[in-house]
UniProtKB/TrEMBL annotation:
Keywords: DNA-binding, Phosphoprotein, Transcription, Transcription regulation. SUPFAM superfamilies: CheY-like. The keyword DNA-binding applies. Residues 2-123 form the Response regulatory domain. The keyword Transcription regulation applies. GO terms for molecular function: DNA binding. GO terms for biological process: phosphorelay signal transduction system; regulation of DNA-templated transcription. This is DNA-binding response regulator.
Length: 215
């Protein structure tokens, strides 16, 4: 799996490159600013792009804005934003790009297990959506809530879907049966009036509805 890494800190950039190489990724470029990120993605067309949010020259949201622009040009590009904080102004836009597929937003301080982190990167590269729980929580606190028709339990289930959990994992977390989780998910999809399509796509649409509603 070919990866482009964008991180302004030399130590973090080289450390991440070494880690991913150890787990079988091919790091085709490791750059330190947003302009170099855009150039590297255009040159190498990687399977996955991992970028920091704060990048030179302004150290505000350059990396995230570059990711949004890259996804606008290529909605199939798999991107993971890896940051120390949630940048509200572009987080929702990034997560909504490409119909919510092959996208992730993870917080550096919350990564406690390397194997789990690598698994999340692979899931995004394969078209999945993985969002840190803190990102979901902060987006929930902003603006109006269009999901008022959902019950408290249904909102819990939807939040866990947004974090990338499977039905089995949600069942373990909420101490439910998988059948019970399936019923909650079915209710969520029905209440959000999502179109009938394959289950994976409906789950992605549910996540997008959820995140867009929390901005």
């Amino acid at each position: 799996m070919r990866v482009v890494i964008a991180e302004d800190s030399v130590l973090l950039r080289e450390g991440l490159a070494g880690l991913l190489t150890r787990f079988g990724f091919e790091v085709v470029a490791a750059v330190g600013d947003a302009a170099a990120l855009v150039a590297a993605v255009r040159e190498h067309r990687p399977d996955l792009t991992v970028t920091d949010v704060r990048m030179p020259p302004g150290f505000t949201d350059e990396g995230l804005r570059a990711a949004v622009a890259l996804r606008a040009a290529d909605p199939d590009l798999a991107v993971v934003a890896l940051s120390q904080y949630v940048q509200h102004s572009y987080a929702g836009e990034l997560l909504a790009s490409g119909q919510g597929r092959a996208i992730g937003y993870l917080l550096k301080d919350h990564i406690a297990d390397v194997a789990e982190f690598v698994d999340k990167l692979r899931r995004v590269a394969e078209g999945g959506t993985v969002v840190d729980p803190e990102v979901v929580r902060q987006l929930m606190q902003r603006g109006r809530d269009p999901l008022g028709r959902l019950s408290a339990r249904e909102r819990e289930v939807l939040a866990l879907i947004a974090e990338g959990h499977s039905n089995a994992a949600i069942a373990r977390i909420l101490i439910l049966t998988e059948a019970g989780v399936g019923k909650h998910i079915g209710s969520v999809l029905t209440k959000l009036h999502l179109p009938v399509s394959d289950d994976t796509n409906r789950r992605v649409l549910a996540v997008l509805t959820y995140l867009r509603g929390q901005q």
